[in-house]
């Protein structure tokens, strides 16, 4: 097969774009090197699960009981993921106080010469904390907390209101009950942190949380296995809500690096997924659950089809990104929710991933 830069090849089941790009090195921060021995949580038992569940509920359309205004803040935005250890003495009833404290913290850091400029805005910021009610799946889940940082456009009129320039939220959806119940009463677990906005503001928010609540943050990548889970979970929704297409981006270990974009029509993806489901669930009464064997069979079918057409084995490469009409996810730790009906299913998996990254 000839390979051309930015070339596109099509098959009855998919369209594939192949292009080369230079190598990028990635470095993973070690949380274990950053957690302090003095942390109050260091004395608690480490009950976090060390591997992803091998079976999970099939996604279903959930009408989240969140206000339309709050829901708008969460969907259609690409979020950078982090994990955060339990918060010491965080109180959901003190959000107004936290808003003032974080605003003052940002102002103080600016006075000390820290650059926190956001392009196109004035250099003054106001913080608001709020609760996102209705974003829980079990009685052990803490209520989701949303944070916004506001500022005025650079040439705004005096009476022009401030606009959001940074957003973030902390959540826990169907967290490991054994781990959550093992925490001392002064700790609140909101392990998944999503942020969108200037990196300088993200760093300041994290620093304030670390100083105020004795917690630590770390980068949360979405593993190869988790990306495959998302592909299967989203494809399973095709019968209720069209996914339009299933798109994957792979990187193959050749010199120079080869990037492959593999797109499968929604109906073709559903047909393959349905055949896998029939084979593994018929007669077992487990139609409402999906197991890892089904996910692996689905992936194997997609890889086999690609190999038949292009004689290129995707198993030798890395899956970097997956997307459908329901959302997109990247190995680097980026997530976008495009349909609120299936957010809970995705957040359950991401919560599990966040808890998994915490130290034992």
Automatic annotation (TrEMBL):
Keywords: Centromere, Chromosome, Nucleus. The keyword Nucleus applies. InterPro entries: CENP-L. One of its GO terms (cellular component) is chromosome, centromeric region. It is found in: Chromosome, Centromere; Nucleus. Belongs to the CENP-L/IML3 family. This is Centromere protein L. It comes from Pagothenia borchgrevinki.
